[in-house]
């Protein structure tokens, strides 16, 4: 009898396993086993109740049951689990991408999240599904909590204290016990850590770690953006103390180990407000007629030794963060702004890439190694642009030949079918309190391209130096590459159809044909209002560039080998590249590939977080700017179509807002996904991406960084 009961229990588990997220009453379960008599059903019911008591089976509504996900019989059903990072949408639903990169993302409904939070690494049980359906699953285990700290508002009511997270991805309020309030007052913006969240608790338990201040204040919101994206607000005393001990002079013994460029004309070109100068350019005309161009990069690796406290801190940060009003550096100020910074009229240590170029900018000789330089002049981009345009000024005899060479490098690169993306950068004019009083767009000029092409040349040649296998090499040594995959084909097909309707011919027979037609389309679209839309949609088609030890080349740049070598003050991968290059040039063996792939993944993740922080700071300042312009009308471009409304971007300021779907009350509207359009069924009113419209600023929520528009008319 006991054996029969055990077998019956197994059958019940099997039925519920096969059912996945489906819910059954005890009669339905009995029927699936093949039991239809009253006594048999009662036995099934009793066993189910025993399993409920043991939490093997869960109640799921009145008289309904489902299996606890931890007890699914994958050996019986053939179903499996995946592990990956959870992304929660503002709607509450979520998806997980397998950490192995296998297959499509897995949809997780809000009810199947358990107590997992946005960014957590989770184990997911896959539900059975038909091929044409999207794969779904349920979180069964939280492998690793991702978010150490959250920002939001503290609320106190009737003796209860709770925390409301800023991010729409965090749907739960957090309970704050009295002992964890730490002096925070009602309505203040605070930083909170999750200290506990038991499976049977509706809300997590949190602890106030830091009080930021009054919501909406400039510094409060900027600091909140940094914390929300996992960037610390300051360096630890231990790191600062380590850096304070670094010598601020260069020893003759160190200088004597290096190639000396101090007598060669050298300069830097940076934004006018820059404080860290990580690259300098030298130029001299050789007697052979060749042009020697030195690309000198701050030798951060001389000061920052692997596994030192400052190195570990730089690794965790991964990158400097550029917010609207400040730079949050990867390295402490003494390093980033003084010791390593290539300031004018000071001897500085560098790691350099030196090229001898002919008149057509072809590389005839190359050299990589440690150097000492002396920058003669610090230029802004505008100052160099003035020299290029007027052909005469200080150091023009040096800058102009370099400019002419970089023009040829750029022409050659584009002829080799690199994609010619162009986008304007949003800049703010802030008052003494950090409040935006004006917004303008900065477009790159020849002076920007001069530096860009030299940095691209150095990055490409360093990657080739290590990545290209010659006859003497037995194996390719492990290296850090900057890779960029080709566009996803189904997205391309959809875009091709859309572009064709606009009069552009997108050829997809080969990479050469595709990129040529991309560049032609981008150039021709400048003649009309479609350029911004075309540029934006083309960027969306592209994969995200990342760091990896597996080299697949850089699709957008059309480089088979590419890395990041030129900015070690602000990017940790560049520091890794300097160390690897130096070691390999000295004949050291290859480093562990798996170890460096882990480093690459972390660097890519931190780069994405920095990008999100930068975007968030821009959105905050744009919302702040428009909050005083409610009711005003502006010309805008439609930038997105969604079921909840139409997104539009003001031309002069790049401020993007939503025109809610309720504003379109003159007709029945439907979304034409293939044409990126919202179309009126009866009147034929058509709002397509790229359509020029006149909008009115209807409302702004500065704290949520949300802007709502009303449509006035279509231009």
Chain-wise SSE layout:
Blueprint: H1 2-19, H2 26-33, H3 38-53, E1 57-59, E2 65-67, H4 74-77, E3 81-88, E4 94-98, E5 106-108, E6 121-126, E7 137-144, E8 150-157, E9 160-165, E10 174-175, E11 189-196, E12 205-213, H5 218-228, H6 237-244, H7 252-256, E13 259-260, E14 266-270, E15 279-285, E16 291-298, H8 300-303, H9 309-317, E17 321-322, E18 327-328, H10 333-339, E19 347-357, E20 363-374, E21 377-380, H11 381-390, H12 396-415, E22 425-430, E23 436-442, H13 446-467, E24 481-483, H14 489-501, H15 511-524, H16 531-541, E25 546-548, H17 572-585, H18 593-626, E26 633-642, E27 645-650, E28 656-660, E29 669-672, E30 677-680, E31 686-688, E32 692-701, E33 706-714
Parallel strand pairs: 13-20, 14-21
Antiparallel strand pairs: 1-2, 3-4, 3-6, 4-5, 6-7, 8-9, 8-11, 9-10, 11-12, 14-15, 15-16, 16-19, 17-18, 19-20, 22-23, 24-25, 26-27, 26-32, 27-28, 29-30, 30-31, 32-33
């Amino acid at each position: 009898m006991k054996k029969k009961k055990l077998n019956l229990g197994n059958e019940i588990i099997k039925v519920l396993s096969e059912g996945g997220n489906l819910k059954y009453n005890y009669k339905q379960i009995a029927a699936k086993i093949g039991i239809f008599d009253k006594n048999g059903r009662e036995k099934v019911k009793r066993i189910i109740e025993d399993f409920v008591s043991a939490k093997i089976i869960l109640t799921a509504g009145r008289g309904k049951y489902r299996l606890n996900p931890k007890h699914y019989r994958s050996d019986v059903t053939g179903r499996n689990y995946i592990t990956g990072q959870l992304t929660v949408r503002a709607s509450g639903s979520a998806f997980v991408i397998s950490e192995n990169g296998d297959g499509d993302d897995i949809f997780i409904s809000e009810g199947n999240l358990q107590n997992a939070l946005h960014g957590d690494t989770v184990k997911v049980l896959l539900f059975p599904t038909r091929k044409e359906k999207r794969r779904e699953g349920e979180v069964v285990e939280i492998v690793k909590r991702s978010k150490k700290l959250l920002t939001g508002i503290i609320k106190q009511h009737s003796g209860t204290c709770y925390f409301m997270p800023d991010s729409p991805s965090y749907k739960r309020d957090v309970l704050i016990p009295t002992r964890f309030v730490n002096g925070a007052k009602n309505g203040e913006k605070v930083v909170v850590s999750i200290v506990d969240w038991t499976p049977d608790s509706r809300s997590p338990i949190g602890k106030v770690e830091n009080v930021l201040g009054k919501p909406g204040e400039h510094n409060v919101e900027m600091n909140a953006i940094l914390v929300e994206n996992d960037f610390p607000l300051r360096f630890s005393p231990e790191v600062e103390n380590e850096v304070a001990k670094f010598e601020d002079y260069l020893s003759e013994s160190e200088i004597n180990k290096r190639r000396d460029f101090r007598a060669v004309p050298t300069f830097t070109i940076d934004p006018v407000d820059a404080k860290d100068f990580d690259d300098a350019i030298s130029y001299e005309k050789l007697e052979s007629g060749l042009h020697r161009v030195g690309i000198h990069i701050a030798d951060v690796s001389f000061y920052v030794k692997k596994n030192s406290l400052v190195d570990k801190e730089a690794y965790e940060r991964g990158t400097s963060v550029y917010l609207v009003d400040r730079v949050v550096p990867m390295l402490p100020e003494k390093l980033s702004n003084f010791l390593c910074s290539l300031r004018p009229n000071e001897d500085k240590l560098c790691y350099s890439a030196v090229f001898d170029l002919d008149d057509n900018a072809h590389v005839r000789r190359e050299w990589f190694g440690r150097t000492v330089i002396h920058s003669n002049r610090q230029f802004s981009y505008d100052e160099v642009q003035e020299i290029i345009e007027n052909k005469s000024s200080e150091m023009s005899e040096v800058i102009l030949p370099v400019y002419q060479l970089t023009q040829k490098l750029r022409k050659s690169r584009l002829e080799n079918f690199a994609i010619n993306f162009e986008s304007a950068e949003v800049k703010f004019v802030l008052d003494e309190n950090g409040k935006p009083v004006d917004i303008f767009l900065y477009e790159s000029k020849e002076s920007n391209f001069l530096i860009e092409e030299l940095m691209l040349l150095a990055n490409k040649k360093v990657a080739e130096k290590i990545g290209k296998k010659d006859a003497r090499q037995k194996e390719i040594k492990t290296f850090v590459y900057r890779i960029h995959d080709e566009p996803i084909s189904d997205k391309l097909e959809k875009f091709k159809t859309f572009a064709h309707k606009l009069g552009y011919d997108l050829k997809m027979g080969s990479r050469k044909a595709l990129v040529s037609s991309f560049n032609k389309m981008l150039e021709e679209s400048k003649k009309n209002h479609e350029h911004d839309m075309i540029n934006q949609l083309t960027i969306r088609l592209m994969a995200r560039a990342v760091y990896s030890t597996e080299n697949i080349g850089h699709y957008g740049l059309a480089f088979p080998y590419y890395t990041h070598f030129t900015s070690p003050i602000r990017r940790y991968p560049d520091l890794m590249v300097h160390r690897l290059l130096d070691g390999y040039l000295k004949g050291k063996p290859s480093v562990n590939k798996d170890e460096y792939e882990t480093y690459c993944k972390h660097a890519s993740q931190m780069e994405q977080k920095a990008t999100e922080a930068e975007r968030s700071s821009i959105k905050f300042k744009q919302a702040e700017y428009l909050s005083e312009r409610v009711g005003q009308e502006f010309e805008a471009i439609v930038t997105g179509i969604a079921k909840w409304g139409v997104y539009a971007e003001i031309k002069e300021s790049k401020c993007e807002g939503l025109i809610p779907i309720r504003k379109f009350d003159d007709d029945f509207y439907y979304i034409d996904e293939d044409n990126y359009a919202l179309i009126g069924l009866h009147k034929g009113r058509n709002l397509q991406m790229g359509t020029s419209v006149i909008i009115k600023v209807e409302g702004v929520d500065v704290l949520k960084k949300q802007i709502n528009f009303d449509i006035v008319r279509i231009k």
